[in-house]
Specification:
disordered C terminus; binds Broken Fe4S4 cluster; about 10% strand; 27 helices; about 650 residues; Substrate Binding Domain Of Dnak, Chain:A, Domain 2; 6-stranded parallel β-sheet; 5-stranded parallel β-sheet; Rossmann fold; alpha/beta
């Protein structure tokens, strides 16, 4: 890839070149044309009231730089940052609420289109929530679980349910600093209140509530959403899929599911293979129906059904530019409104499905969980009807890449010892021995302001070369998948000697695709399990682990970064800092949070420096834990990792399992 390329992906660059030749504008040109506001970008613009907006600029002590009301630069910067956290938390958590309401409808027998698919997971969640499940009808247990989760959106005092899943020491830190969330909505609402004109003016106090809101996202909204989705649609396990623009077929109806909510897309997956639907497609001249995904809905259906992905956020317009998509259904979050305009240049139908997210120029087909299959069939038919309108226009790409997705935390536990002895012991041992240097969560969006997906690829390649195991989610996973990075062969060819050995023994890629952006909660669960296993840190803080979102763009990413920092994970985001205008706020996010929570939030635009800082944190944590110094190719002793055959033998020998 050349540095001047707009994307780190060669297929994306081919499509972009085609668009340029045909004078079609995309987010890549708009990003070059529309420069960010230099005041807003650094967090120094206050729009909290209509005396302003005030631009807080000037030289000298930052506390002397004030708006008309006297709000200082650090106050304004902190307020803007907290509002980003609140926006991101609201997005994840509103999604979570809808998932819980679907579970409630299933439990009450109000919808026949959804069932409890993973009863074992339901029982596991019930057990965490202290809900008795032994000998009870499944739907009764589901009803109690759904109602217990709804408390996390209603309780006025106390603590959200899942706080207790964190290591005790991590919980103690949160209690000491008063940041345990009460309920998700209350923390979001209080964030908006505190940051409105004339309320909280103390940056540290504001940011502490920001962390409380972010924890409501991570250990509330995101974790609830992940668990309910697993209960309803199944807990993912490794599955083969394909990625990139070559997934679209010239002779079949191409229907894309895009957005974040898996409910309707699950039903589209169900009905698209029905014989009547396939016959319908054939009656319109197509050979069949080909489903594909975009963004995080793609991750959801890929993890559970192996539906191929066309990629992440910046690929959405490019997918349309292939001219091969007959319809795209969108629900909520990360959907570019530019799609509607772009679709007019092709035959593609854009179908909005949520009352929360409509778009001028799109067809609206309102999703209703009570008749989900019927709506899904209508959508598939609309895509089929549109097949005949397809022209030969568009930039057709044939390349696609194999990939493996579906690494839930349950599967990661299983792969380290089988069904009867699954644990995180082998991973901890491999880290202690220096075979694995550390773990990085590589997550977040891709971004047309930088070389989109290119920074993800650079960091992924360098980390695995340095024996760092990567867990990835969201568009970070898509960036890796569309580059062919999510295969076990990737480890053989590119990983350092220790990581390669581990990947070969288990048969896994060095980058584990954990799911959508809400599934960052799986990383919290893994980190908690590693702390409980012993041998490393006894809390999440202090682990040789780092979070990186090198191309982030969404407020959701900020909420995620903050819940990781508050949980004890140093986080490094790419791009310019949205708190750059205030050294005081920058210090709170880095040094103060590190001291209090063992996590920090850095912004670093230089990919080389992101890498350097991540490895510095990992090696620093190893040293503090008195682990063997990391030296490539030189390992200490550790328990032998079991390969697949050994695991199968052990399971055959074991007695039937009772419970879970
Ligand atoms: S879709 S929030 S661009 S990861 Fe989850 Fe991707 Fe970022 Fe949206």
């Amino acid at each position: 890839m050349q540095p001047r390329d707009k994307s780190g992906n060669k297929d994306a660059n081919r499509i972009l070149k085609w668009a340029e030749e045909h004078k079609i504008e995309t987010a890549f040109e708009r990003a070059a044309r529309i420069k960010p506001c230099p005041i807003g970008a650094k967090g120094a613009c206050c729009k909290a009231c209509h005396v302003g907006p005030c631009r807080l600029m000037g030289k000298g002590d930052e506390n002397d730089i004030v708006g008309v009301c006297g709000a200082s630069l650090p106050t304004v910067v902190a307020r803007n940052f907290v509002r980003m956290i609140a926006g991101g938390t609201a997005a994840h958590s509103d999604h979570a609420r809808d998932m819980v309401l679907t579970l409630l409808a299933v439990a009450k027998g109000e919808t026949k289109d959804f069932q409890i698919t993973d009863v074992k997971k339901l029982y596991r969640v019930a057990s965490i929530l202290d809900i008795n499940f032994e000998g009870r009808p499944v739907n009764d247990v589901a009803l109690d679980v759904a109602n217990r989760f709804l408390e996390d959106f209603q309780r006025q005092k106390g603590e959200i349910n899942y706080i207790k899943r964190a290591p005790k020491k991590t919980q103690e830190r949160w209690r000491k600093w008063g940041i345990v969330p009460r309920n998700v909505d209350r923390e979001i609402s209080e964030s908006m209140h505190r940051t409105t004109m004339g309320v909280d003016h103390e940056p540290d106090n504001l940011l502490l509530h920001g962390l409380r809101t972010a924890l409501a996202d991570g250990w509330g909204g995101c974790m609830i959403s992940t668990d309910v989705t697993d209960i309803l649609f199944g807990t993912p396990s490794p599955i083969k899929a394909e990625a990139s623009f070559g997934i679209f077929k010239e002779d079949e109806v191409n229907l894309v599911v895009h957005g974040h909510e898996p409910t309707l897309s699950e039903k589209i997956v169900d009905v698209a293979s029905e014989p009547e639907m396939i016959e319908y497609a054939k009656s319109k001249g197509a050979k069949g129906i080909n489903l594909g995904g975009m963004c995080c809905t793609a991750n959801e259906v890929l993890m559970r059904h192996g539906i191929p992905t066309a990629g992440g956020f910046t690929n959405q317009e490019l997918g349309l530019l292939t001219g091969l998509i007959d319809a795209i259904t969108v629900d909520v979050q990360c959907i570019m409104p530019a799609l509607a305009d772009l679709s007019r240049k092709f035959h593609t139908k854009i179908i909005t499905t949520s009352e929360k997210g409509k778009m001028k120029g799109a067809v609206h087909m309102q999703y209703d969980e009570h008749r989900a299959k019927e709506i899904a069939r209508d959508i598939v038919k609309l895509a089929c009807d549109n097949f005949k309108n397809r022209t030969t226009g568009g930039s057709h790409i044939t390349e696609k890449y194999r990939m493996i997705g579906g690494f839930s935390h349950e599967y990661i536990e299983y792969m380290q010892g089988g069904r009867w002895r699954g644990s995180f012991r082998p991973l901890n041992d491999a880290i202690m021995a220096g075979r694995i240097r550390g773990v990085v969560g590589l997550a977040g969006c891709d971004n047309s302001r930088v070389q989109s997906t290119g920074i993800h690829k650079f960091i992924a390649t360098e980390l695995i070369k340095n024996d760092v195991l990567i867990v990835s989610t969201g568009c970070g996973s898509a960036a890796c998948g569309t580059s062919g990075y999510l295969t076990p062969e990737m480890a053989l060819e590119n990983a350092g000697p220790g990581l390669r050995e581990v990947c070969e023994a288990i048969g896994i890629p060095p980058i584990l695709h954990l799911g959508a952006c809400v599934d960052n909660s799986r990383i919290l669960t893994i980190a908690s399990a590693m702390a409980a296993e012993g041998g490393l840190s006894d809390e999440i803080g202090g682990m040789p682990a780092v979070g990186i979102a090198p191309e982030w763009m969404s407020e959701k990413a900020i909420a995620i970064g903050c819940y990781f920092a508050a949980s004890g994970v140093p986080v490094i985001f790419g791009g310019e800092s949205p708190v750059e205008a205030s050294p005081e706020v920058t210090k709170i996010l880095t040094e103060v949070w590190m001291e209090r929570f063992k996590g920090a939030f850095h912004f670093e635009p230089d990919p080389e420096k992101i890498l350097e800082l991540a490895l510095k944190y990992i090696d620093g944590a190893r040293e503090a834990l008195k682990l063997k110094k990391y030296e490539p190719g030189k390992f200490g002793t550790e328990r032998v990792l079991m390969d697949m055959a050994a695991r199968r033998d052990m399971e055959r020998a074991a007695k039937p399992h009772v419970g879970f």
